[in-house]
Amino acid sequence: MSSEREAAGMRVALMSYDERELRVRKFYLEEQSRAISCTCFQSGEPVLEALRKAWCFDVLVLSGQLEDMDSLTFIERLNQLPNRPALLLQGDGWYDDHTTSCLKRSRKMFCIEHGHLQDLMRGLLGVPGQNSTRIERFCIQLYEQWGIPQPNTNCEYLTLALQIACSADGKLALRKEILRGVADEYHITVAAVDSGLRRMIDGLETRAPSGWERYKAENSLTGMKITTGKLIYSLQRTVLRQGIVKREHL
């Protein structure tokens, strides 16, 4: 598999207690699109453990009970993770009050009403924010290189700011559009977002980890005063240059 295909691909975790169902779904999805790579799980704990360690899946597909826990227990435990992929719930029976409440609270949980394979394929291709998912994965790796333990609120601000910056073809205004979007999402002021990002930058400049110094060198920022705007726009150029943001469907 080429690095280009790996960058553009969708890593899917298929989850069900039914081994035959998993085999059929994996075969169908991977036959339909070379960009989709599926891993099958009959238990929920291995998926949760993998997600605690790394961003290893772009989408989870849950179609019912698992061998080691019921579906609602899995959803509740998944929602406790700071960084989690989109979750597709396939099949009937997802419209009880508890699940409906989870759906309303989460921007990363979606229902596919029917259990047909074609519906699953359409659901995967219709998951909102594939670019945002790729950006989030990129940022998680970057924060690790910069030596910032996760979860970190200021990192969450920066990730969302980058997602907003990359959502338009042109250059968005820093405070009126990018930071305002972050502030609205977290119900805080623009000044609070800017202050948090500047504290993160100041901390990086003080500690000067090798990953941070390497990032500055690669983006012609060495020796410059790093402002919030310089950091966000340099990250935007990086994800565009590396092809992390895709304009086409799989």
TrEMBL record:
GO biological process, one term: regulation of DNA-templated transcription
Name recorded for this polypeptide: Response regulator
Superkingdom of origin: Bacteria
GO molecular function ontology, one term from the record: DNA binding
The species this protein was found in: Faecalibacterium hattorii
InterPro entries documented for this protein: CheY-like_superfamily (IPR011006), Sig_transdc_resp-reg_C-effctor (IPR016032)
